[in-house]
């Protein structure tokens, strides 16, 4: 008896729809990816353009190439001064050929045939030369025409006040860094005195700048330690800095705002700290300030207190837009407005600093142009999905027939 021929099992018809688990995964996958991207965007910070408005009594910055493309940057505007002290000069040139020298408590005239020049004495190795220029009693004030320094110079600006409210001293310390050769391109100061003035010099000798001949030394009393000269007026005084830099201390007439206004100082680094009494670093803010985001005008500025530290990491496209004097609570400071793109922004206390950079989520959320784009995409996606479903519905009956 033959064995009955077995029929192969009939395959079960496949469902036209994918398994429910697969459909759930397909539906959830875009949501999971989007949530992951949103979480990453909320955690990752990006370089942020900020505008800082701070009032400090000191700040340090490295000068960047000037906005005009010239070789040096102007740091002080045209303004009147009572006195100017300059440390570490390499050369002081005077336009006046009518000078008097203090000799034994009395003034006597000097006979000059060329332009008088002051230069450091060779015997003063290791001693810093200095010169102080101040107007005579009752004479019109001197005028500082400009202070210029090349890119790469490390600039420290300090403000100090005297016992009287109107007494203010502004100090500029211009020093070289590893990438700056101040011997080849020194800082310079230009002044003029319309009336009588006096010049007191330490470790500087008086010579004459004679055309076609070497400078001739003048034997004057007090050489080489100190020297006092006076003149009835001087069209221009030019002070050239040394390879070690230049320190300028100004006592302005009236407000120092005239010396600072309308400045545009490009910088490559900036620091808002000073050295405390015990040698520790402390913040140099003397009044509350603000940190805002110019590219996002609808974003609320961040308030800064006078006790906050402000630290900017690598910066680019940075410039000090405005400088002026400001008083708050009896303390006078330098009020500056800084615009920069910073890769690092730390505010608060050194123990608990806060990162004030925007995240990629902030940048996406607060960007007006992207908001419009997202609105269009939000309208376009469901509309396209509905259109696709309608096309599938219309297409299915046609295939069945």
**Classification by helices and strands:** alpha+beta
- The total tally of domains equals 2
Most strands sheet: 24 strands, antiparallel
Task: Tell me the helix content.
Answer: 10-25%
Q: Kindly report how far apart the N and C termini lie.
A: 50 Å
Rg (CA only): 35 Å
Please report the total strand number as a whole number: 29
Continuous helix count: 4
* Oligomeric state, counting identical vs distinct chains: single chain
Q: Regions with pLDDT < 50 over 5+ consecutive residues?
A: none
Average pLDDT figure: 79
Strand content: over 45%
The coarse overall form would be: elongated
Description of the structure:
There is one protein chain. With 401 residues, this protein is an alpha+beta fold. It folds into two domains: 44-67 and 264-369, no CATH class; 76-254, no CATH class. The chain has four helices and 29 strands. It has helices spanning 20-43, 257-260, 360-365, 368-400; strands spanning 48-56, 58-63, 72-76, 79-87, 89-94, 99-103, 106-110, 115-120, 130-135, 142-150, 154-161, 168-175, 188-193, 197-202, 204-209, 216-217, 226-231, 234-241, 246-252, 265-271, 273-275, 281-283, 285-292, 302-304, 309-312, 315-328, 331-342, 345-348, 353-355. The strands form three sheets. The chain has a 24-stranded antiparallel β-sheet that branches. The protein has a three-stranded antiparallel β-sheet with strand order 25-28-29, with no helix packed on it. A hairpin with a 5-residue loop joins β21 (273-275) and β22 (281-283). The two termini are 50 Å apart.
SSE arrangement:
Elements: H1 20-43, E1 48-56, E2 58-63, E3 72-76, E4 79-87, E5 89-94, E6 99-103, E7 106-110, E8 115-120, E9 130-135, E10 142-150, E11 154-161, E12 168-175, E13 188-193, E14 197-202, E15 204-209, E16 216-217, E17 226-231, E18 234-241, E19 246-252, H2 257-260, E20 265-271, E21 273-275, E22 281-283, E23 285-292, E24 302-304, E25 309-312, E26 315-328, E27 331-342, E28 345-348, E29 353-355, H3 360-365, H4 368-400
């Amino acid at each position: 008896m033959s064995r009955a021929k077995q029929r192969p099992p009939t395959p079960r018809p496949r469902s036209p729809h994918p398994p429910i688990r697969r459909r759930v995964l397909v539906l959830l996958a875009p949501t999971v990816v989007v949530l992951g991207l949103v979480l990453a965007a909320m955690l990752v910070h990006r370089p942020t353009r900020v505008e800082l408005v701070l009032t400090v009594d000191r700040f340090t910055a490295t000068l960047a190439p000037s906005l005009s493309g010239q070789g040096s940057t102007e740091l002080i505007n045209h303004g009147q001064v009572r006195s100017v002290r300059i440390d570490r000069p390499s050369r002081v040139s005077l336009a006046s050929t009518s000078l008097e020298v203090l000799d034994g408590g009395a003034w006597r005239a000097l006979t000059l045939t060329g332009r008088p020049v002051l230069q450091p004495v060779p015997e003063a190795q290791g001693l810093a030369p200095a010169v102080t220029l101040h107007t005579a009693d009752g004479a019109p004030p001197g005028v500082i025409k400009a202070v210029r320094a090349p890119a790469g110079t490390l600039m420290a600006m300090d403000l100090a006040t005297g016992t009287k409210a109107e007494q203010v001293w502004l100090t500029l310390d211009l020093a070289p860094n590893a990438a700056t050769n101040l011997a080849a391109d020194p800082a310079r100061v230009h002044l003029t005195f319309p009336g009588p003035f006096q010049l007191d010099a330490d470790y500087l000798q008086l010579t004459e700048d004679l055309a076609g001949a070497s400078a001739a030394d003048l034997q004057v009393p007090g050489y080489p330690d100190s020297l006092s000269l006076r003149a009835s007026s001087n069209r221009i005084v030019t002070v050239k800095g040394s390879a070690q830099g230049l320190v300028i201390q100004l006592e302005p007439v009236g407000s120092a705002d005239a010396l600072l206004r309308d400045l545009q100082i490009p910088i490559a680094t900036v620091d808002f700290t000073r050295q405390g009494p015990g040698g520790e670093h402390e913040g140099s803010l003397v009044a509350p300030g603000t940190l805002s985001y110019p590219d996002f005008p609808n974003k609320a500025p961040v308030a800064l207190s006078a006790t906050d530290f402000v630290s900017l990491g690598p910066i680019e496209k940075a410039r000090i837009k405005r400088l002026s004097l400001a008083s708050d609570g009896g303390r006078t400071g330098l009020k500056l407005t800084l615009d920069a793109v910073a890769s690092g922004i730390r505010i608060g206390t050194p123990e608990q600093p806060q990162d004030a950079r925007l995240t990629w989520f902030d940048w996406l959320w607060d960007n007006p142009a992207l908001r419009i784009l997202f609105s269009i995409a939000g309208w376009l996606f469901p509309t396209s999905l509905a259109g696709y479903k309608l096309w599938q519905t219309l297409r299915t009956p046609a295939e069945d027939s």
